[in-house]
Design brief:
Radius of gyration of chain B: 12 Å
Mean pLDDT of chain A: 90
CATH topology of the largest domain in chain A: FAD/NAD(P)-binding domain
CATH superfamily of the largest domain in chain A: FAD/NAD(P)-binding domain
Mean pLDDT of chain B: 79
Strand order of the largest sheet of chain B: 1-2
Low-confidence stretches of chain B: 1-9
Number of strands of chain B: 2
Strand content of chain B: 5-15%
Number of helices of chain B: 4
Distance between the termini of chain A: 44 Å
Bound molecules: flavin-adenine dinucleotide, iron/sulfur cluster
Radius of gyration of chain A: 23 Å
Number of domains of chain A: 3
Oligomer: heterodimer
Number of helices of chain A: 11
Structural class of chain B: alpha+beta
Distance between the termini of chain B: 31 Å
Helix content of chain B: 25-40%
Chain lengths: ~450, ~90
Amino acid sequence: MGLRYVIVGAGVAGIAAAESLRTREPSASVTVVTDDPAGFYSRPGLAYYLSGLIPETQLFPRSPAELRALGLTWVQARANQLDPYAHRLILADGQTLAYDKLLLATGARAALPDFPGSELDGIVTLDSLADTRSIVRRARQGLQAVVVGGGITALEIAEGLNARGCRVHYMLRGARYWANVLDPDESQLVEDHLRATGIILHHHSQIREAIGKRGRLIAVETMAGERIPCALLAVAIGTHPRLDLAQSGRLKLDRGILTDAYLKTSAEDVLAAGDVAQVYNEVTGKATLDTLWATARAHGEAAAATMAGIPTPYRRTVAQNVTLLAGIPTTIIGSVGSGEDADLVAIARGDSETWRMAGSAWVVVDPHPVNRLRLMLGEQTLKGALVMGDQTLSRPLQRLIAANADLTPIRQALLADKSAIAHLIMSFYAEWEQSHADKR
Amino acid sequence: MAFVARSLTLDLIRAEVLATGQVVADSVRCVQCGVCSYNCPIGLDVRAYVWCNAAIEDPRCLTCGQCIARCPRGVLRFAPTDHSRA
Ligand SMILES: Cc1cc2nc3c(=O)[nH]c(=O)nc-3n(C[C@H](O)[C@H](O)[C@H](O)COP(=O)(O)OP(=O)(O)OC[C@H]3O[C@@H](n4cnc5c(N)ncnc54)[C@H](O)[C@@H]3O)c2cc1C
Ligand code: SF4
Ligand code: SF4
């Protein structure tokens, strides 16, 4: 009999692992356990469903027939307990499930608010398809809504509700939006765009209490004593890895499940992948969390190879995310900011801890009014870049940063003439690509 | 929500691409949201190609650029057919 592979979680990490195992071992038993009845869907796509850009049916990258063709055993249940010594999972209905190799791909969940009244009906987070459906159901034309939090998710909720005709108040604890990734001008650009679409911004604003009537939210009160009537309050203050199952098996945990570079946890035959995995980086000696789709997929594929007997480390690439910030296409590559963001208690969605490891680097900004380009220039190489607006440069920059390309030949010129940086990078890249291609 | 077109030069290069190019993907940027497939006028499942990091090789592709323009994450672009796999 072949090995019994069990995967907990049907997000991108779990499905990438399942597909990869199936390709490697066509006749092995692969079981996927998930507590989300909607199965596998694009979690980042939820924001586009919320804003009305795509219908719900578009969220599913695999048709039911394609999933069936994979020949997986699909168990819709919550896995409550892990016994790594007996190589067994216990499901919510008491059933046990034996495994030879187990992958924990349990993802992350939105951090919950802790102000008084946070249990009221009308307070929502955006994690799952069910959450999105519930927000869509509530978001009526003219409804007054408040959004708190930072990062991409808070913005996406604010824009989504606005697109659905709600009157949206976006409350920021600090002086500006996403202060530890964006620079002041970039925050300003995003905030201007939000205002232009009708979203009302409140700075230095924090909720003291959510006020309800017969269990339903009717208003929020700020620390400054302001009262904003609202029937919907969306909270996006960060995420926490879902650790309960790993905890029950006494796995080594920090903020996530600690793994080595091969995604192996402290327990024999148990691996972790995706948002839940805090993966050791051999270069920095630190273990970090990512909440990125592409990283979760790469984890899943590497873990599957290791499970199938071909030890394969997760190969880190430069963390990057491309997204629309208030309608402005924005690519964030490598390390671009530092410090804390008052609007987030933990790492935000679509975020990577490495983006705040900028340390000391020269900052070079192309001062064009709409398109912005920010480079984090190290002694010889580029450490990170942020491209807003025109994306022509984002791919070249991604390649140069990933390859640690030596920028010495244009470094002085970059620092000397800020208006020329786009041109300098483009011509440097063209030559670099050429010599790179020649060497291969 | 207003979408900013990916590239203002899209229309200018379209005619040229029609003859010599195809749509290629940079799949690490993709989050499988399906916006591309939803907007393809002839119903190609662009997203499925992107998952495999493959160029859109379907001969029915009009190289109309809708998928490129609508993708919120700059995954897709036109490239000359010979160098399709970046
Ligand atoms: C609104 C939003 C916007 C985002 N934007 C971006 C973005 O711009 N860019 C980007 O790269 N990423 C973004 N992300 C993050 C991205 O979606 C995640 O990084 C990715 O989905 C992680 O995949 P995963 O497989 O690790 O976990 P998940 O997708 O969270 O899947 C985990 C699965 O495990 C199941 N599960 C958990 N515990 C159990 C249990 N005990 N028993 C059974 N099942 C269990 C859950 O139900 C779920 O199906 C966004 C996410 C959201 C919600
Ligand atoms: S629209 Fe872009 S991000 Fe979305 S599935 Fe298509 S290629 Fe991927
Ligand atoms: S270029 Fe047009 S026809 Fe071709 S895949 Fe994209 S949207 Fe479809």
